[in-house]
Amino acid sequence: MKLSRILSALDRELLPGRTGPAGADPEILDLTEDSRAVREGSLFFARAGQKTSGLRFVREAVSRGARAVISDEDIPGLTVPAARVASMSRAQSAAADFFYGHPSGRLRVVGVTGTNGKTTFTYLLEAVAVEAGWRTGVIGTVNYRLPIQGGTGVETIAAPNTTPNALVLQRALHEMRGRGADLAVLEVSSHALELDRADRVDFDGAVFTNLTQDHLDFHKDMEGYFAAKSKLFSRMTSEPKAIPGSKGRPGKFCIINMDDAYGKKMADACAVRPTGYGIDSQAEITAKNLRLESRESRFDLRLLDGAGRALPAAQAVIRLPGRHNVQNALAAAGAAGLLGIPLPVILKGLARLESVPGRLEPIDCGQDFTVVVDYAHTEDALRNVLKAVRHLAGKRVLTLFGCGGDRDRSKRPLMGAAATELSDFCVITSDNPRSEDPSRIALDVEVGIHRAGRKNYEIVIDRKEAIARILQMARPGDWVLLAGKGHETVQIFADKRVQFDDREIARQFLSGRA
User: Edge-to-edge strands of the sheet including 274-278?
Assistant: First the structure.
């Protein structure tokens, strides 16, 4: 595609003052903002990072074969065409959507946002869609999953971000469509919404799980956090897609957790008529008569079909413990129903999912107590998981957790209070300290514990030693929760990343003990 065609798609983002060889209009073969990924024919987006200017890498990109550059700053003296834009994020979204042929317009796309529950929602909806025979791709926190060309199963790609930049996101949607995908399920983070990464994605459905304190280092306050999340719903278009040969029922929908304190406010922000779900609230999609067990949850499900008609109640089973996972299942079942998937298929799909990586994931090495690993890294997530564990535990609940460095400090004391309130004993340790001193992070956590008047804890900064310590404390019948890192396989320090997986570390100690 010629550079001039891409520039014509940038709408009002393009600023006057294009530089480079007069009349040059090179053929563009690829879009990237990573100078290391530049190849012959790339269009390089010189985006400023948190600590560096994108201009620093422009000449490297050109030397690697970039045929043109787009930046939000002037770049003098280049031997290739360069254009300046007002907003790099919006320019990337517009350019990638145009370059890849508006891929989100050629398949069903469901986006989910919220502080907690996004990942479990995507796994549940994926399981239902696969049960329905839909080829499905997923963009999310754990990984990106693309259907295998001409076969069954998925190709799994490591996920650097919950929602990648627009260049990667649109390329992934294009790749999914090229592999015959019927549905794409996207976790849409508040950062992505604030930074316009999903600006040109044409969503068929938008789902809101909940909103609790997190990311206030980025959004500053809860109003800013809500405003970012609400963009997914306020920007929905009501015009249904016409996709030849597509599965399901055309139509746009918003699904809102009405049990959440922000549910009504988010419903009011929806550009299309919202559908509510909940356990306690008056909603169209509901779960009643919950039976919560250690390896599964049963409930009576009521939802709507693809035409928005109420269906008779049916008993649903998910192989995930906890009331919060029933809420996640309601959201997934609701989305599947509004996509036109029949109720019997939805029930089979919900039941087929065995587990979600790092979400109350059991670690069983034959020990006489229960160990679960969970990604809970906010106060609300920690409370929900601990309430689920407390409901199931016959004896003590022992919890290990830490808080991430260079992130919202105000949630640390809240998490300390929640953990010690709902656990019999806690071990406070490091999470991903990044540039902060992990001992200082632990002191922030300790402030909340002292305010709550609790003393049932100790601090072991080294996470591996902390895991060994809490497993050594466990007695028959206890439940041990290793919280915070979940599916993650590295620990991030100021100057390095080290291989670290709570699940593998726990297995090592348990195998030696069992």
Answer: 154-158, 143-147, 136-139, 183-187, 108-113, 205-208, 253-257, 274-278, 285-292, 297-302, 314-318
CA distance 169 to 203: 13
- Indicate the domain borders of the chain: 3-98, 100-352, 361-513
Contact 119, 215 (CB under 8 A): no
Do the beta carbons of residue 128 and residue 332 sit within 8 Å? yes
Q: Tokens standing for 476?
A: 């028959």
Query: Selecting from 3.40.630.30, 3.40.50.300, 3.40.1710.10, 3.40.1390.10, what CATH number does the domain 3-98 have?
Result: 3.40.1390.10
Give 48-106 as a 3 state SS string.
CCCCCCHHHHHHHHHHHCCCEEEECCCCCCCCCCEEEECCHHHHHHHHHHHHCCCHHHH
Nearest to 426, CA basis, from 404, 453, 449, 394: 449
Where would I find the H helices in 309-410?
Answer: 323-338, 343-352, 379-392
Threshold 0.90, pTM exceeds: yes
* Rounded-to-integer distance, Cα 322 and Cα 87, Å: 43
Are 431 and 439 spatial neighbours (Cβ–Cβ below 8 Å)? no
Amino acid at residue number 321: P
Q: Which residue in 282, 281, 299, 280 sits closest to 290, CA to CA? A: 299
> Do the Cβ atoms of 362 and 370 come closer than 8 Å?
yes
What is the CATH number assigned to the segment(s) 100-352? 3.40.1190.10
Structural contact between residues 338 and 310, judged by C-beta atoms closer than 8 angstroms = no
Mean pLDDT, the chain cut into blocks of 10 residues (514 residues total):
96 86 93 95 85 77 96 88 94 98 97 97 98 97 93 89 95 97 96 94 98 77 94 92 83 96 97 97 96 95 89 96 97 97 98 97 96 96 96 96 96 98 99 98 98 98 98 98 98 97 98 70
Bridge partner residues of 187 (DSSP): 112
Domain 361-513 is found in CATH 3.40.1190.20: no
Phi and psi at 340, nearest 5°, equal 100, 10
Ramachandran area for residue 472 (φ above 0: left; ψ -120 to 50: alpha; else beta): alpha
Cβ atoms within 10 Å of 390's Cβ, excluding its own: 14
